[in-house]
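Incident review: delayed structure delivery

Summary: a single-chain prediction request sat in the queue longer than the usual turnaround. Root cause was a stuck worker, restarted by the on-call engineer. No data loss occurred. The affected request and its eventual output are reproduced below so the record is complete for anyone auditing the incident later.

Affected input:
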Amino acid sequence: MNARTYLKNALSAQQPGIGMWLTLPGTALAKTIATIGGFNWILVDAEHGQIGDKDYYDLCNAITVEGISPIIRIPSDEGWMIKRALDSGAHGIMTPMCHNAETAKKIVSMSKFAPVGTRGCGSPFTHHIFGVTEGEYEVQCNDNLLVIVQIESKSGVENVEEIAAVPGVDVLFVGPFDLAKSMDIEFGSQAHEDAIARTLAACKANNKFASIFCESRIPNASSPSPVTDRTPVWGGQGMSGEQAKKRLAQGFDSVSICTDTDSLIREFTRQLEAVKQ
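Output delivered after worker restart:
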């Protein structure tokens, strides 16, 4: 099974996790992105995206066959949502708004088979994704699937050391935009950066992986890479890849560098501007 857990393998080998955000359903789009080369994970966004659990299995197949790990972000930390995502072949689940250690413990329990947790057995499809038998999957999955919790609230940062200490949590993922809103501070301000740094430090202290979202949002049509009120900036840069490079240098283990929708809009905007000049 672990031969196909691409993101976990990269992180364990101290190689960077380079990912992107998939919000649109359909295997054609997922497959097109997956064949670009360079990504080792794709986030299947079932929280804010237009993707439902009926899409999970086909997306997990299409992404995994290209040597990339599908990570499914579910809408909430409900047990049935975790089960649906994992039973469809996700290489890991991401849950939004983890505010405290008790929530993190609950998420871990619902993600693991007994005796570690309370996840129910029985999916006849999951093992297909990993090229193993159903029995092999059940024996190996507790140690090979990633549990990723999002730190994107004031309370999440205040409790981040306790969250990072929870056994079974593999990755703490910073959601910087919701974090700034929750703390009622300016995106990119010193207070914002301090909260992100505190999360990173908690990961390092507890031997957990740290990840962060680095999307620069939609650019203004008047410039190919402007800095506007719709383009949150970190470190004086408006480009996602540049942000991501700096975050990796800062010590983050994994980054998400773009979303499908914003990348499409950005490129169409750029080409329209070129033809109108």
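Verification: The longest strand covers residues 17-22.
Action items: add queue-age alerting; document worker restart procedure.
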